[in-house]
Amino acid sequence: MKIALANDHAGYALKEEVRELLQNEGHEVLDFGTYDEEACDLPDFIYPASLAVAEGKAERGIFIDGVGYGSAMIANKIYGVSAAVCQDTFCAELARSHSNTNVLCIGGKIIGSALALEIVKVWMNTEFLGDIEKYKRRVDKVNDIAEKHLKKI
Ligand SMILES: O=C(CO)[C@H](O)[C@H](O)COP(=O)(O)O
């Protein structure tokens, strides 16, 4: 799969580990930066990476900052992006199987890298249970809200 990675200074170290994991598992990584730990502004990196997911240049995105929610706030403003913050593998599994997210947000300051890499593996390898009517119906309702309130790109 082609994966967009993006991060701020607080997510840089973990992003490097996530990139290595993804490449070792055969994925192609599009790295939108930032590329070091110098303080920066999260939207400058998450916005272009979110656009890449929305425009189909990447199938999914993994965004990493200090605690995760800032990345999710930005990503979820973009039509076609559905982002969840996950701090454990159960959340990561449901973020795919129930909610069909295409962006995973994690916080480099709040979970260790061993857990973060497990979260990435579970999220990457879990399919959406779209053949179960209640999950499809709920995701369709979320998408209907986006149709009404987010600008299509
Ligand atoms: O977690 C974050 C957003 O969700 C950011 O990484 C955090 O706000 C950065 O803060 P600072 O500039 O003080 O390092």
UniProtKB/TrEMBL annotation:
Gene3D superfamilies, from UniProt?
Answer: Sugar-phosphate isomerase, RpiB/LacA/LacB
InterPro entries, from UniProt? RpiB_LacA_LacB, RpiB_LacA_LacB_sf
UniProt GO molecular function:
ribose-5-phosphate isomerase activity
Would the keyword Magnesium be found if you checked this record's keyword annotation? no
Name the source's superkingdom: Bacteria
GO BP annotations, alphabetical order: D-allose catabolic process; pentose-phosphate shunt, non-oxidative branch
Which keywords, in A-to-Z order, does the entry hold? Isomerase
Protein name per its UniProtKB record: Ribose-5-phosphate isomerase
Q: Which organism is it from?
A: Anaerobacillus alkalilacustris
Tell me the lineage of the source organism. Answer: Bacteria, Bacillati, Bacillota, Bacilli, Bacillales
